[in-house]
Amino acid sequence: xxxxxxxxxxxxxxxxxxxxxxxxxxxxxxxxxxxxxxxxxxxxxxxxxxxxxxxxxxxx
Amino acid sequence: xxxxxxxxxxxxxxxxxxxxxxxxxxxxxxxxxxxxxxxxxxxxxxxxxxxxxxxxxxxxxxxxxxxxxxxxxxxxxxxxxxxxxxxxxxxxxxxxxxxxxxxxxxxxxxxxxxxxxxxxxxxxxxxxxxxxxxxxxxxxxxxxxxxxxxxxxxxxxxxxxxxxxxxxxxxxxxxxxxxxxxxxxxxxxxxxxxxxxxxxxxxxxxxxxxxxxxxxxxxxxxxxxxxxxxxxxxxxxxxxxxxxxxxxxxxxxxxxxxxxxxxxxxxxxxxxxxxxxxxxxxxxxxxxxxxxxxxxxxxxxxxxxxxxxxxxxxxxxxxxxxxxxxxxxxxxxxxxxxxxxxxxxxxxxxxxxxxxxxxxxxxxxxxxxxxxxxxxxxxxxxxxxxxxxxxxxxxxxxxxxxxxxxxxxxxxxxxxxxxxxxxxxxxxxxxxxxxxxxxxxxxxxxxxxxxxxxx
Lengths: 60, 455
Fold this sequence. Notes:
The complex is a heterodimer.
Chain A: H1 6-16, H2 23-39, H3 46-52
Helix pairs in contact in A: 1-2
Chain B: H1 8-16, H2 22-40, E1 43-46, H3 48-63, E2 75-79, H4 106-113, E3 117-122, E4 134-135, E5 139-140, H5 156-164, E6 169-174, H6 180-186, E7 189-192, E8 212-217, H7 220-230, E9 260-264, H8 273-288, E10 292-296, H9 299-302, H10 309-324, H11 331-342, H12 345-365, E11 371-375, H13 398-401, E12 407-414, E13 420-426, H14 432-444
Parallel strand pairs in B: 2-3, 2-6, 9-10, 9-11
Antiparallel strand pairs in B: 1-3, 4-5, 6-8, 7-8, 7-12, 11-13, 12-13
Helix pairs in contact in B: 2-3, 2-5, 5-6, 10-11
């Protein structure tokens, strides 16, 4: 599927952000996205954490 | 005179006893700069003539009995992220390579009013967006303990200049660790104060809700003295806070018997063994001094909390330049900024929710402990040839910019190749005096702050 191609994902995301960038930059951003996913560094990790700690407003 | 072995406090005493002059201190620092800059590259712009003129003025004032305080006549460095009137301010970037501001940043004004002598503008990671200070446009800063290694960043010029004796203290900024990382990797003290305590007006932002300004210095006392000189409410900074009285030196010299030190043990797990050994030894020192050291849990941190607040805010600041002049960014920083533009709004909102939760979690933990201890970086400095290290140094420091509380990094030993290791203590908001007391107790019980790099 096209959506699963990292380069295509990066290109689409950059288009949504309103920037036209060179192919090299798309590849670099795709590479960074992949590296962050592999290192579990990105905000992608935040959603499971939120699920683990629900109802934060009610706690105060 | 061997300036590399003097502290701000010691130099101040010599000045007031008329045993030295600001001009002599400044000339000694400039001689050190002339000797070391070909190796360190810590400065982007040196302002030697201005510095000597300021030093002469400082000496004249002291001779007339006009004493501006502990920084009077002391040579310091300014991170080149801070606007300086009539002096090029690049932020370590190509975008601003020709920018000569017609105003001073608030912290520059504060330092001038305190009588400090600015030697010039210090090198940094491009736009402070990175932790190596391997600046693409102005060349890499080198670590004075091993010239093949990074000094850390983004305030790498500040760390290298202070450690090597090119200046007595320096301005740093910290958004994900940029004061504490170079402090740890260069073997000096770095103090990130409470959010809002030091005005950021006139300083190129990295991320508005995370940016802190603070000192790098060779001792805890020097960092506290420096901080005292630059705090203060400023309506020009929307994040600035009002404090009626502030004195970071107020508790220096007091013992730490009974002080409760929480250890965030989960943060040790990803550290190199040499870092763990040095930080554990530091905790033993605190125990011997009477502190009650105990492990604490911080569930979100323990689970590997990572937030992208910085990335999104940085991209928001740079979005227009990214569209207008993308070629004026290095590939590394442009890639990070473009990536930040792709992070969806819902994810930023979730990060803000997590940030609130983490802050609450830390606040709750600090009802049972007085400070939280942890390694500053997971490893010692890497070789510059190793390339991009964006996430290698800041994993442990990053979360603490989000809580707004003060954190100090102090030297606690040496690892492989004689490279420094630092450990961090986080305190409650506005309790810098207490934090400095604990940090200084460790410092005075260990020899680490007396070691000097071999350059």
